[in-house]
Write a structure and sequence with these properties.
heterodimer, A: about 375 residues, mainly alpha, about 0% strand, B: about 375 residues, alpha/beta, Rossmann fold, six-stranded parallel β-sheet, 19 strands, about 35% helix
């Protein structure tokens, strides 16, 4: 924002304009350097780990590349795994712009999936144009209310949102288990309690020409919309002002409680939609298979993306690729399945560490 | 997650209740499928948890190990594969990147929708699932399902436990009150009470398949209440058997052998013997012979077995347990027969009525038998 603003004010002469552009791209590169350095360092550290496990790091990296992006099948595999992460990452990233650390995306996903499965029961027999939007709306509403509640507790009662959102996730999972194994259970689901099947007609299906379901499109679109909202709208400007200095924001007349609750609602709605996608694109019903940890993985994605909605997209694809390659590592090298978790863990720690170098790396000595 | 073990509505109608010998032929009643013979067969195994869990997944991995030893067979394995798109993509990876022609996705929750989706997409690949969920006419031809009547082994383990306990209190830590789990608890209690009418079985449901902390708490709380033989139906009975050993009480195992964890107190255990099913299936698929869509069996067929008796089991208890085992193998002993009451006093089976192993009614079990302390509410 500041860089582009300076460009606008420097429209005077051509040379000055060119200089500003160079300045801007250098600034952009300088911003990216710590991240690139962190990735290289992580790969080196992981290489040491692999070598200690008795395998050639280069062979392992080659296999990982093949499993994640090396074939068209692998690319689609990575994208498919990235889809839910995009949605759940928003649940952490958006409130983070207001200075809140929300880690309860799993809860919003679970209650969202439950709402989607539940709303399909009375709508059985209705056309998909009714059922699918109803499932989407129900999941986003319930997911939004779930995280919105954590936001409301924060601004109205001063309850720590990190703790409350995590505890709400436990409540959501307990509620989910109770309803799926009790009142909402399909009597035919004997040994795997589930809600009734939503029916093949109401399934989301795959994107045209791809072996990836519509959840990916939902994730990409929502990330783009949230990017516009947070970076290029009055709402986003106000939200970021709250994140920078809540007191100053309040003094300048911003409705801080409203902003916090609304942002939490949007984040929760995104995670809730991820639950709906699991139900409507994969399982066809809500059951314990929804508890796959996507909500928690989303926290990792949000932090790695530095809470930028746009940044979530490449990070989610990267993590999707890492998890897609995990299977091949097990099958080819007999490496334990935790291997890719080790890489993820190294990446997370090193990248977070690298953030402290942001703005302190210079490509050229400063003119001053 | 929910890999537990289960049976479901399989087509076993038409099979007389007490005709135990009929079991293998019921499986053959479904139209057999056959694949093209191949010199080298690539077989994939997928597990929902760790293959060293002393439990459900280890039992399957032991079966896979036997397949690995077969000539002309290449085995691919993946553990900790979630019941999400992850399992679909892992199976597709095995097919597309490694050329797998036969796949054993071993978790119950892999079947619907994951196996069904992929079986339709890859009609030349054979998918054999653990759980007995195949329905003729409804599911793709390249899908099969197998399961074992492990309640027979639970009954025998129950007799050993009933004759070893000094307090007459046995403890059963279970994941969820679903039919397959209830059947194991009831068979265990009936086995114990067949030789020791004073024995009771206290049940604690933890709520999920793998909750080690809750399982350990449940184990300690049961021991504090006077229970001196513990057993479990969770994914891995490891912490429960270890807790029992530490507190100097006895235990019986489940899924795989936990004898190594409790050299003093481990009595015996109800184990799967997947090796028998896996090697038979692989032989048939490899040579292009027809294979059965539905395979089920118990002690007689060798699909389930008992851990060797521990030193704490007295000669008399061994004798009684062996008698029960022989009766189940011969089909002369029926576990669920009248008069049978639930632990709330309701009549389940009137005198003279018996429900044999293949009876479909047993797969809807929603009660705990008399002598079990616990509630399904």
């Amino acid at each position: 924002m500041t860089a582009s603003a300076s460009v606008v004010s420097d429209l005077g002469t051509g040379s000055r304009r060119l200089g500003a552009l160079k300045e801007r791209s250098r600034g952009w590169l300088e911003g990216l350097l710590p991240t690139l350095g962190a990735i290289v360092l992580s790969l080196l550290l992981f290489g040491v780990f692999v070598a200690l496990a008795g395998h050639s790091p280069l062979a392992v990296y080659a296999a990982m590349y093949r499993g994640a992006f090396g074939t068209w099948f692998s690319v689609q595999n990575s994208l498919l795994r990235a889809a839910p992460l995009m949605l759940t990452a928003l649940c952490t990233a958006l409130p983070a712009r207001l200075g809140l650390i929300v880690i309860g995306g799993e809860g919003a996903l679970v209650v969202g999936g439950l709402a989607a499965g539940a709303v399909a029961i009375p709508l059985a027999g209705a056309p998909p144009v009714v059922v699918i939007p109803a499932m989407m709306a129900a999941s986003m509403l319930v997911g939004g209310l779930w995280i919105g509640a954590a936001g409301a507790l924060k601004v109205l009662r001063g309850v720590n949102e990190t703790i409350s959102s995590l505890l709400l996730a436990y409540i959501g999972i307990a509620l989910f288990n109770h309803l799926v194994e009790g009142p909402l259970r399909d009597p035919a689901s004997l040994n795997k309690p589930s809600t009734p099947d939503i029916g093949a007609a109401n399934m989301l299906g795959n994107l045209p020409g791809l072996d990836v379901h519509w959840g990916l499109a939902f994730g990409v679109v929502l990330c783009l919309v949230c990017q516009l909202l947070m970076e290029h709208s009055v709402f986003g400007f106000a939200a970021r002002m709250v994140g920078g200095n809540p007191r100053a924001a309040r003094l300048s007349g911003l409705g801080v409680p409203r902003l916090v609750i609304l942002t939490c609602c949007i984040g929760g709605a995104a995670a809730g939609l991820a639950g709906m996608v699991e139900v409507a694109a994969i399982h066809g019903k809500a059951n314990a298979s929804l508890l796959a940890g996507y909500g928690y993985a989303g926290i990792l994605v949000a932090f790695l993306a530095n809470h930028s909605a746009l940044g979530i997209l490449p990070v989610a694809v990267l993590l999707g690729g890492i998890s897609a390659s995990g299977g091949l590592l097990q099958r080819t090298f007999g490496l334990p399945d935790a291997t890719v978790n080790v890489l993820q863990g190294i990446l997370f720690v090193v990248l977070l560490g690298s953030q402290t170098y942001r703005g302190r790396v210079r490509l050229r000595r400063s003119p001053r | 997650m929910v890999q537990g073990t289960l049976l479901a509505l399989a087509v076993l109608a038409g099979c007389k209740q007490t005709e135990k010998v009929e079991i293998t032929t019921t499986a053959a009643a479904a139209t057999p499928a056959a694949s093209k013979p191949s010199d080298a067969l690539t077989v994939g195994f997928l597990y929902v948890g760790s293959t060293k869990d002393y439990g459900y997944n280890q039992a399957h991995a032991e079966g896979a190990k036997a397949v690995k030893a077969m000539p002309g067979v290449k085995v691919l394995e993946e553990e900790n594969v979630a019941e999400t798109v992850a399992v679909q993509k892992s199976m597709e990876g095995m097919i597309n990147l490694d050329g797998a022609q036969l796949i054993f996705p071993t978790s119950f929750g892999y079947f619907d929708p994951h196996i069904l989706t992929l079986a339709a997409k890859y009609p030349d690949v054979t998918f054999l699932h653990c759980g007995g969920l195949y329905t003729e006419g409804k599911h793709p031809k390249n899908v099969g399902s197998y399961f074992g009547y492990i309640d027979e082994a639970e009954y025998v383990a129950g007799t050993a436990a009933g004759l070893t306990t000094k307090t007459n209190q046995l403890g059963f830590i279970a994941a969820k009150p679903i039919p397959q789990v209830l059947r194991n608890i009831n068979a265990y209690a009936l086995g114990a009470r067949s030789v020791n009418p004073k024995a009771t079985v206290s049940v604690i449901f933890t709520g999920d398949w793998s909750l080690p902390v809750k399982e350990a708490e449940a184990a300690n709380s049961l021991i504090d209440q006077g229970v001196d033989v513990l057993t479990a139906h969770v994914d891995s009975p490891k912490v429960i058997v270890e807790a029992a050993e530490r507190r100097n009480v006895f235990s019986t195992g489940y899924h795989a052998s936990q004898a190594a964890l409790a050299p003093k107190g481990y009595l015996t255990g109800a184990e799967w013997n997947w090796e028998k099913i896996y090697t038979a299936y692989v032989t048939k698929v490899k040579s292009g012979q027809p294979w059965d869509h539905l395979v089920r069996g118990g002690l007689e067929e060798g699909y389930v077995k008992l851990s060797p008796y521990g030193e704490a089991v007295s000669p008399d208890a061994r004798k009684k347990a062996d008698e029960a085992k022989a009766g189940l193998e011969a089909g002369t002993l029926v576990i669920f027969k009248g008069p049978l009451k639930s632990n709330t006093g309701a009549e389940i089976l009137a005198a003279g009525v018996s429900r044999g192993q293949t009876d479909i009614e047993l797969e809807k079990m929603d009660y705990l038998v008399e002598g079990v302390k616990g509630s399904l509410e």
